[in-house]
Amino acid sequence: MMFDWIKENRIAFIIALVFHVLILGALFINWQMDRPEKIVMEQGDIIQVTSVDANSYEAEVKKIEQNKQAERRLERQRIEKQRKAEALKEKKKKQAQLRKTEEVKRKKAAAAKKKKAEQTKKRKEAEKKAAEAKRKKEQKKHQEELKQKELEQQRLKEQLLKEKKFQEAEKKRKAEQEKRQAELKRQEERVIAERKRLSKGIVNRHVAMIAQKIERNWRQPLDAPSNLKCKIDIVLLPSGKVVSVKVVDSSGNPSFDRSVETAVRRASPLPVPADSVIFKQFEVMRLRFEPGR
Question: Which residues contact 209 (CB under 8 A, 6 or more apart)?
Fold first, then answer.
């Protein structure tokens, strides 16, 4: 802390140090002068004693002391004057440095202000150019949008015209298609009706043939009367081969029911239609077996 103060107040410290050295030197000289000299008397020397007036001696000592004080006062004044001169010099130096610093700051501020003004000018010019370019770009974009809008309206108009023509052609095509479909449907209905008629005849004929073949292979049980009947389900292959047979509505006589199942297996293969579409009705057929009818 003390060293920092010495660095900041170097001139004052030097002055104070010189002042203290001078004071110590004056005191040392005064001490040397006031110290009584040691008198060495050699053998044979004659001592002469002079009588001194006490008042005169005190006046002389006082005068010497006053002279010393005056010298010390003058020295202090000289040191104080020198200190003030050094302080004034340091103050002027600091003021000069401050003025120099302020001048540098002023120049820097002026340069910065000038630079800022130039930058502001350039920025405004750039903004003006950018605004002008933006205006031109927006104007061009607006013109292109108008042109695009006109083209879009033209395309929409052409599209609507094409759509109208397409709808008219589609309407005509649909009308013709509906007419053809109606004609095809009528033809199909006629074909279906004819096929059903033929199919019904074929089915009835083959059902009668199957019933006859089963009856030919049937052997009446001794304990079964001749007026019994039952219903059976027969599963067939397209070849007419019997896959399975089952009584679904019993006659009430187990021997009769078993004899019917046996007759069906003996009659296999049964006479089925060659037409695969008509055969679908014979894959699983239900037959009422009533012999003699």
Answer: 271
